[in-house]
């Protein structure tokens, strides 16, 4: 019986330590007058954010698209790389933006591709709204985050697939919005490689 109690005591202690070491995100709503809909974002604050042993400081902000899919692994990577005295990157506030209509918000142009099943129908009919979505981020979300959290002026944005396409579009047309851009596996096939052509023009 003593062995069983000792075992359960060790398990409980291990679980408590593991739980203390994980800073999970909190999801909040924000109404967008630009998009005319309620959006949500998940935010994760650095472990030192509320630590009274340290003088309060302001943090860089890392914005992540496809938040409902990408938050967990991005949050884990940032926490790992910013941990300890030999950290590779500074601690950051992570803001993961959730989707409502992913294709609409993350694509730069209106699709003209016809459905292979029915030539009278357009694939990705609700598309081409990335500029509007970018305005939501720049004029509403960023100011909301800056008003409610201790942020500094350094901002990063990351996107994958359609998100990578959207981040590239922001870099091409609004490079001053962020200090760093992380683009992985972008959907550059979109609209007959529209974005690749713009890259060649803009970066000549």
Automatic annotation (TrEMBL):
Keyword Hydrolase belongs to the record: yes
Transmembrane segments: none
UniProt signal peptide: 1-18
An example Gene Ontology molecular-function term: hydrolase activity
Keyword Hydrolase in record: yes
Record SUPFAM superfamilies: alpha/beta-Hydrolases
Pfam families in the record: Esterase (PF00756)
Superkingdom: Bacteria
Family, per entry: Belongs to the esterase D family.
Name assigned to this protein: Alpha/beta hydrolase-fold protein
């Amino acid at each position: 019986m003593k062995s069983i109690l000792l075992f359960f005591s060790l398990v409980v202690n291990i679980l408590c330590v593991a739980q203390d070491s994980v800073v999970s995100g909190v999801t909040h709503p924000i109404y967008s007058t630009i998009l005319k809909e309620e959006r949500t974002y998940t935010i994760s604050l650095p472990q030192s954010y509320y630590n009274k042993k340290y003088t309060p400081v302001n943090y860089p902000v890392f914005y992540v698209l496809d938040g409902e899919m990408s938050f967990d692994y991005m949050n884990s990577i940032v926490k790992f790389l910013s941990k300890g005295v030999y950290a590779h990157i500074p601690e950051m506030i992570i803001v993961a933006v959730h989707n409502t209509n992913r294709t609409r918000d993350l694509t730069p142009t209106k699709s003209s591709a016809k459905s292979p099943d029915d030539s009278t129908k357009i694939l990705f009919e609700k598309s081409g709204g990335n500029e509007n979505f970018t305005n939501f981020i720049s004029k509403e979300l960023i100011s909301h985050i800056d008003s409610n959290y201790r942020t500094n002026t350094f901002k990063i944005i990351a996107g994958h697939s359609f998100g990578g396409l959207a981040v590239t579009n922001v870099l091409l047309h609004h490079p001053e919005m962020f200090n760093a851009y992380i683009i992985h596996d972008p959907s550059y096939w979109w609209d007959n490689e529209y974005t690749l052509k713009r890259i060649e023009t803009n970066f000549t």
